[in-house]
Amino acid sequence: MSQSLKPLLHITLHMNSLAFSRVGIIHGTSGSGATHWQRWLECKCIQSGVETLFPKLPGRFGDPKLSAWLEALSRELPVIDRTTALIAHSMGCATVLQLLQSDSIHEVGLVVLVSPSSPSRIPRQLSHFYDGFDPVLVAMKILRSAVFASDNDVLVNPDTAATLARDLHGSFNLISGGGHLSVSSGFHKFPEVLRLLESRS
């Protein structure tokens, strides 16, 4: 094999290695900095050759509004279907769940919710993120789902997260001592989420 063909072969072997053609990554109210596991996942998805969308949502670090976040996601993620995977963290989870209630979205291939902040533990000004949420409606649109939470997260009640996973007919994964499953808890990578993106069942 000529030297000129080797790099091309290397790239081809890494194309389309995920089970989805499109991955949307949705951050929480504190965003996701350079060392956050969502940035690591973004790099992995790009290297795999899939369309990777990681929109910066308005009002993070300040006073985020659900309506503004939904508008931004609808604009940045115009196509959501069975070939799409949505990976959310913290308040991004509530945003994704609300997004999926839209009449324009009929199905989504995979939804992964990491540390979905519980309504009983978030600041009052964020409670509107859960207004009108219908888990039955959303569950009908999700082909596969998974919820990750830890047993010592001040923003997530593990029982509430487990109930959410059950309502969505998905798997529940409880991590011991993981905090908010963020950079401050040492989560710079999240291989379990990547494995879900690689799996076709």
Characterise this structure:
This protein is an alpha/beta fold. It is built from 7 helices and 6 strands. The protein has a single domain (18-198), classed as Alpha/Beta hydrolase fold, catalytic domain (Rossmann fold), CATH 3.40.50. The protein has helices at 6-13, 37-47, 66-76, 91-99, 135-139, 158-167, 191-198, and strands at residues 22-26, 51-53, 84-89, 108-114, 142-150, 171-175. The protein has a 6-stranded parallel β-sheet, with helices on both faces. Helix 6 (158-167) links the parallel strand 5 and strand 6.
Fold blueprint:
Layout: H1 6-13, E1 22-26, H2 37-47, E2 51-53, H3 66-76, E3 84-89, H4 91-99, E4 108-114, H5 135-139, E5 142-150, H6 158-167, E6 171-175, H7 191-198
Parallel strand pairs: 1-2, 1-3, 3-4, 4-5, 5-6
Helix pairs in contact: 3-4
- Put simply, the count of helices is 7
The level 1 CATH classification is Alpha Beta
Secondary-structure class: alpha/beta
| Topology pattern, helix = H, strand = E | HEHEHEHEHEHEH
Oligomer: single chain
Please report the total strand number as a whole number: 6
Average predicted local confidence, pLDDT: 92
Low-confidence region ranges:
1-13
Q: Radius of gyration, Cα only, in angstroms?
A: 17 Å
Q: Which CATH architecture?
A: 3-Layer(aba) Sandwich
Largest sheet: 6 strands, parallel
Q: What name does CATH use for the topology?
A: Rossmann fold
How many structural domains are formed by the residues? Answer: 1
Strand % is 15-25%
Q: N-to-C terminal Cα separation, in Å?
A: 36 Å
Order the strands across the largest sheet as they lie in space: 2-1-3-4-5-6
User: Given the C-alpha coordinates, what overall shape results?
Assistant: globular
CATH H-tier superfamily: Alpha/Beta hydrolase fold, catalytic domain
Q: What is the percent of helical residues?
A: 25-40%
